[in-house]
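Because discrete structure vocabularies remain unfamiliar, we turn briefly to a single example record, giving the amino acid sequence and backbone structure tokens:
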Amino acid sequence: MRSTRATSAVERLNSRSDGPRYSMVRTADELFYLVQSGGASPAVKLCDPMTLDEFAAFVNAYGPQKPRRISKLDVAFEKQLGARNATPKRSEDND
């Protein structure tokens, strides 16, 4: 089944969000859309049907995002790159 990528995207979304639960619906035309379950109330459709690639990109961008982990080495490297770009380059004339 090709929908594994879509299912994984929805699982990641559910792990990122604390409150509502999300699920996907696959149509007979092999299109996907995202729904938010409301418990006892009916599910709310959050997007129009889309292809697998569009759906996975939409779900990955939807909802809260996990902050990117940055190590001390990453910070030092970024600082070093910033210092390197801030210094003007010297050009020597060979006249």
Remarks:
- The longest helix spans residues 72-86.
- Helices lie at 4-16, 52-61, 72-86.
- The chain is about 40% helix and 20% strand.
- The chain has a mean pLDDT of 83.
